[in-house]
UniProtKB/TrEMBL annotation:
GO terms for biological process: heme biosynthetic process. Signal peptide: none annotated. This is Flavodoxin. InterPro entries: Flavodoxin/NO_synth, Flavodoxin_dom, Flavoprotein-like_sf, Protoporphyrinogen_IX_DH. The lineage of its organism: Archaea, Methanobacteriati, Methanobacteriota, Stenosarchaea group, Methanomicrobia. PANTHER family: PROTOPORPHYRINOGEN IX DEHYDROGENASE [MENAQUINONE] (PTHR38030), PROTOPORPHYRINOGEN IX DEHYDROGENASE [QUINONE] (PTHR38030:SF2).
Amino acid sequence: METRTLVAYASKYGSTKEVAESITKILQENGLTVDLEHAKKVHSLEEYSAVVLGAPIYVTHLHKDAAGFLSKHHEALKKLPVAIFVLGPLSNEEEEWKEARSNLDKDLGKFPWFRPVDTKIFGGKFDPKNLRFPDSLLARLPASPIHNMPASDIRDWIEIRDWAGQLATRLQPALT
Ligand SMILES: Cc1cc2nc3c(=O)[nH]c(=O)nc-3n(C[C@H](O)[C@H](O)[C@H](O)COP(=O)(O)O)c2cc1C
């Protein structure tokens, strides 16, 4: 029987989607059969043997489409190997990465049944010119952490590809 892996993602401005695309490609290059889908568009996990979920952090929380995915598919996800990756930090400051990890742990703590095979944080991408409401409004508030923040893209594509490559071997045994 053919086994399939799902890469599901949530994304507001596309940077997590691009990472999900890169991870999909690496998994495929490593011999896995992979579908890439927006998390909201996934109706059933019936045909999948493993899942990779990707999402950005927004205002200290995992994107709602990822949280919704975990809630909606919780019975199926309990029985599958699942890896999660998250985009967030916009600089290399240690404090920002620690905060992202703590925010992620807090949100995943709401799903105590969820035991991912790996939980990875990658740096994110930020472009103040592309922000839509209400983020554009948030960026104008002097007290906001994104006020006057310059554009940045600290996604580390080598790290992303390495992670996906290792994931392929970790998900493989579950697929055989
Ligand atoms: C309004 C706004 C709030 C954000 N809040 C956080 C945050 O609380 N923690 C964090 O680590 N990153 C935060 N980020 C950074 C995003 O997670 C990062 O830009 C990510 O790459 C966006 O993914 P997307 O392009 O897929 O939507 C925020 C970005 C924006 C625009």
